[in-house]
Amino acid sequence: MKEKIDFLKMAEEIKEELVYIRRDIHENPELGFEEYRTSKKIKDILDKEGIPYKAVAGTGISALIKGEKSSSDKVKTIALRGDIDALPIKDAKVCSYTSKIEGKMHACGHDAHTTILLGAAKILNSMKKELKGNIVLLFEPAEETVGGAKYMIKEGVLEEPYVDAIIGLHVSEAIEAGKIGIKRDVFNAASNPFTIKIKGKGGHGAHPEDTIDPILIASNIIMSLQSIVSRELSPAYPSVITIGSIHGGTAENIIPKEVEIKGIIRTMTNEQREYAKKRVAEISKGIAESLRGRVEIKIDESYPCLYNDDEMVKLLENTAPKVIGEENIIKLKHPSMGVESFAYFAMERPSVFYFLGSANFEKGINNPAHGDLFDIDESCLPIGVALQCNMAYEYLTR
Fold it and tell me: Do 211 and 200 meet the contact criterion of CB atoms below 8 Å apart?
């Protein structure tokens, strides 16, 4: 019978260190693929703990804790992931750890994710003689922009040793610290940014009959694209088509020759994703041609849907109560329309991703992520460490 390990107690014992690391990273935010200071700090801590690592995807890091209790040649390996980049936002908080870098801020909690992964590394490495397998630590750069995960995967972070499963988390300002949010199946949407250039024929605003008005065409396209969501995709699965930018024209009495619109598609299944992309192109082309114009369409392949593996969700459901109690586990009913580059890892290996509560409503710590007042209740740090440690340990020793 396995001896019960109190990971939360172990994590609470290093809370002061966790808070220090998190605040230091928060004060010195760096954008995607520019995380040089952050990367060095991570490496310094790994060196101190005697954990070997290698640089990947530029500023990313892959580290390895080798369990020493393995009794056979074939051992299991589980990966824990934390993202390390910040956002181009001016920090409006007034506190002792406000960002020192003008126009940059950890407004999405990646400083907490990095800290939690480092805390888990410290504890798990201290007990590697008891581990029947390996733990890979993935510090991902550029999650907010191009998705550093896919570059890490290309560089082989899931091989040698072969990673069997992966665990990820994200702090949530909508969930009280001390609680977590779990969901089966699809957890995050897929996204496809797109650009549509409408080509017409410019001319005098007083003589529209001599022109092909791209503004009129753009207006019809924008309205018609909404019919994809309202009339062509099943309401059982959430989807969104948003136009976030429209540019064209220079004066009120001039009909321009070109208008550019930009938007994004958010879908919850691969089938929906492919269908929506096809229809955006078909509708845009059809309307433009019917109104005597033409279009150039570019639809980007951005983050895929994030699917949680059933067996990995069961692992979380079975281990989390040992850390926070069954009453603090929230079963989420709906997926998030946001995107998450952890989805690239989840496409490669059985994975689980969950929300770690970081809000404190009494103290007003519940400002939205990607906002200039975002912050976390730091009591979530040791809880996150304990949850990650407990899952990794259970996976390797069960």
Answer: yes
